[in-house]
Design brief:
Mean pLDDT: 77
Shape: elongated
Number of domains: 2
CATH topology of the largest domain: Protein Transport Mog1p, Chain A
CATH architecture of the largest domain: 3-Layer(aba) Sandwich
């Protein structure tokens, strides 16, 4: 009995050795096949990195504000108004004209190179302490009550829909578009800011009652340089 039991154990041991040998051969052949195909087994240990190169993603292109970094502003001139205490830069081809004590115009209409622009600045007293939005709403109320124009109410509604908050450097306030499609009167950009107990009203168009991307960009560029001084 003991002899048969010993023989059985030997046979089991031989069987295990054969199975392990077959598994070893299969594993070796498998690695050889992978190697022939050019595939290497990944080896990642803690603290190590993969051999596979990970290309860095391209960083997003920084957005550059046209109102503050355009190269064409390098040769701009500076206008200073000591009475109201402000200054700003303007294109070298621009010419000033004083409409009144508190109103001036800047234009390049005498230039031989279009596009053209006409920028007006009015400085008004603010005894009622109006906000910029109150000031524009008052303008629209006057327009709605204009009995000489049958389309004044519709025009006021259209302009009302374009009102939005505006902030550019030291100028904070409200922007309103005068009108474009369907506006039979004129198109302009109006920006109103309340500063130092005064109301500053900026308007710009091309001189003929139209606004393009050029005038829109230009007023933002100019106002980005606007500074209040002692």
């Amino acid at each position: 009995m003991n002899k048969q039991k010993g023989q059985m154990q030997v046979l089991i041991l031989i069987g295990i050795i054969i199975i392990l040998g077959i598994a070893g051969v299969a594993y070796y052949l498998g690695r050889q096949t992978l190697s022939l195909r050019g595939v290497s087994e990944p080896r990642l240990n803690r603290g190590e990195t993969s051999d596979v190169a990970i290309l860095p993603t391209s960083p997003p292109t920084p957005s550059v504000s046209e109102s503050t970094s355009s190269a064409d502003m390098a040769n701009w001139k500076t206008y200073t108004n000591k009475e109201y205490g402000f200054l700003f830069k303007y294109p070298s081809d621009g010419n000033f004209s004083l409409n009144s004590q508190d109103s001036l115009s800047l234009t390049n209409s005498n230039s031989n190179t279009p596009p053209y622009y006409l920028l007006d600045l009015e400085v008004k007293d603010n005894p009622q302490n109006l906000s910029a939005r109150d000031f524009i709403n008052n303008e629209l109320t006057i327009l709605r009550n204009n009995k000489n124009s049958p389309n004044s109410s519709a025009l006021a509604d259209k302009r009302q829909a374009t009102i939005k908050d505006y902030q550019n450097g030291q100028i904070t306030g409200v922007l309103m578009r005068g009108g474009s499609d369907g506006d039979s009167v004129t198109d302009f950009i109006e920006i109103v800011s309340v500063q130092k107990s005064n109301i500053y009203k900026f308007t710009i168009h091309d001189g003929n009652g139209s606004v393009s991307d050029f005038q829109n960009k230009l007023i933002n560029q100019i106002l980005s340089t606007f500074k209040f001084i002692p």
